[in-house]
Amino acid sequence: MRYLLGLDIGTSGTKTALFDEDGKTIQTATYGYELFQPQVGWAEQDPEDWWKACVKGIKDVIEKSGVQASDIKGIGLSGQMHGLVLVDKDHNVIRKSIIWCDQRTEKECDYMTKVIGAKRLIKITGNPALTGFTLSKLLWVRNNEPNNFEKIYKVLLPKDYIRFKLTDVFATEVSDASGMQMLDINTRNWSEELLNDLNIDKNILPNVYESVVVSGHVTEAAAKLTKLQVNTPVVGGAGDQAAGAIGNGIVSEGIISTVIGTSGVVFAATDTPRFDEKGRVHTLCHAVPNKWHIMGVTQGAGLSLNWFKRTFCAKEVEESDKTKVNIYDILTKKASKSKPGSNGIIYLPYLMGERTPHIDPNVKGAFLGVSLINNHDDFVRSILEGVSFSLKNCLDIIENMNVNISEIRVSGGGAESDVWRQILADIFQHSLTTVKASEGGALGVAILAGVGAGIYESVEDACNRIVKGKEKVNPNTDLKDLYSKIYETYNSAYPRIKDI
Questions:
Q1: Are residues 240 and 325 in the same domain?
Q2: Which residue, 40, 66, 308, 394, is most buried by CB atoms nearer than 10 A?
Q3: What residue stretches are annotated with the Carbohydrate kinase FGGY C-terminal domain (predicted)?
């Protein structure tokens, strides 16, 4: 039997997963690390923490599975998108990585829009200037840390730093690179006109490949640390959202993915690049060759429930520790005791600003409509509903871009809750299908590795073989009018609170 390894370098931890060629999960390991917030709205991580988590995870899955390293035929890399990793000429990390949810770069975004022009920026990169994307972070370092900027030899994304540690190769691939805002998504290569206009040296960027291409091989040093075999192929891989979409079989037009992770994403594959002229959703290159995707992002999805748990749920956390029942199962059970509409509370999930449909790094979250009748259950439910309304904003924009929707698949940590899945179906008023691909992004990049290694003919063929629908959640049509009315109120709230 041949095996494939998927590494998913996430925000809270790195998941390492070993699969056989039928997509069956053989062994997984997850190791977490710290998120640093030096100031409000800032978010950083240490790339060395990612590498240590990868080394531990790879050793774990090889040792515990009993699989021979020589039977692992390919490695795929996925990871949090948009992070800025700066490496000097001695290949050392210059500073902590500024990651995807960091919001410090508003001035740099204004500068980019002024120099390039809003419409031209969307035409080239598929997106307006965004605080979360890598380019604005690079400009921030140039403006605020000139000594660090002068040391830059290569600019990498989080997963591509792990590629370098495994292979000694500086490389990236189209899906993650198109989230840097330096790639021309029409030609699927670096935009020399944009880089020239912003006075950025193209040589600091790695070579960019299609996602299924083998970009390097495991070195002796990395093999010694991880117990992998020397020369094991490493493919381009994918940004976390494109990887998760492949793990869910979102590789052709008509099938939509909704992911409730730390952030929330609505994702649609397209055969041609399509743009929202207001830039409210992202158009990026898909990890499937000659495909693109549209992606709407809610910054604070699972993040909102995690924040609420940490801040207001000491009793429930204690109960979870005593009973060994998952804390999120306890919280979503509480949410189920509240009525649809959360007894009047509406939650706006803007804990880290927002991306879709409001490109606003400064807007703050809120609970609206609180009264004396409300209890803890109502607040929890309002979070599940508020995040679902924000995801519906994403879905509405994609529908208005003439993307056909034949099926919506749902995944991510939040989607493991039957309560949250039902709320999402009721607010979308669409049936939702869960998929068996529980490892999501790690499976997606393992599939890409399998294509690169010649195990599968194409990404589409692999998904047809591996990804199967599981259970279906149908919307409660009796709630359509109620949720439509609340959705109107939800949408009316942003203009009223955005300047507070």
A1: no
A2: 394
A3: 258-452
- Higher-confidence residue: 362 or 91? 91
Residue 178 in domain: yes
pLDDT classification of 250: cutoffs 50, 70, 90: very high
pLDDT tens digit string along 414-424?
999 999 999 99
pTM of the entire structure?
0.87
Residue 56: count other Cβ atoms within 10 Å of its Cβ: 17
Catalytic residue among 240, 377, 378, 426: 240
Within this chain, do residues 360 and 231 fall inside the same structural domain, yes or no? no
Residue 294: beta bridge partners? Answer: 268, 283
- Asked if residue 91 belongs to a known ligand binding site, the reply is no
- Residue 95 near residue 138, CB atoms below 8 Å: no
Q: What is the CATH number of the domain that holds 381?
A: 3.30.420.40
> Is residue 319 a part of any domain in this protein?
yes
Asked whether 198 and 190 are in contact (CB, 8 A), the reply is no
The SS3 of residue 391 is helix
Let me know if residue 309 belongs to a domain: yes
| Positive/negative CA dihedral, 290, 295, 300, 304 | negative
Residue 472, judged by CB atoms within 10 A of its CB (0-12, 13-18, 19+), counts as: exposed
Q: Where does residue 465 fall: left (phi above 0), alpha (psi -120 to 50 degrees), or beta otherwise?
A: alpha
Query: For residue 342, what are its two tokens?
Result: 């959360």
Number of domains in the chain: 2
Of the candidates 134, 183, 185, 198, the residue with the CA atom closest to the CA atom of residue 161: 134
Residues 34 and 143 in one domain: yes
Other Cβ atoms within 10 Å of 460 Cβ, number: 16
Q: Report the b/e string of 285-305 with b at 16+ CB within 10 A.
A: bbbbeebbbbbbbbbbbbbbb
Selection from 478, 474, 434 nearest residue 341 by Cα? 478
- The answer to whether residue 215 is domain-embedded is yes
Q: Are the beta carbons of 287 and 242 closer than 8 angstroms? A: yes
Tell me: is residue 376 an annotated ligand-binding position: no
20 is catalytic: no
Pair 60, 26: CB distance under 8 Å: no
Per-residue pLDDT of 318-373, as tens digits, reads 999 999 999 999 999 999 999 999 999 999 999 989 989 998 989 999 999 999 99
Nearest to 70 by CA among 148, 161, 167, 2: 2
User: Long-range contacts for 365-370 (Cβ within 8 Å, ≥24 apart)?
Assistant: 365/300, 365/304, 366/493, 366/497, 368/493, 368/497, 369/344, 369/345, 370/344, 370/345
Task: Return d(Cα 129, Cα 195) in angstroms, integer.
Answer: 14
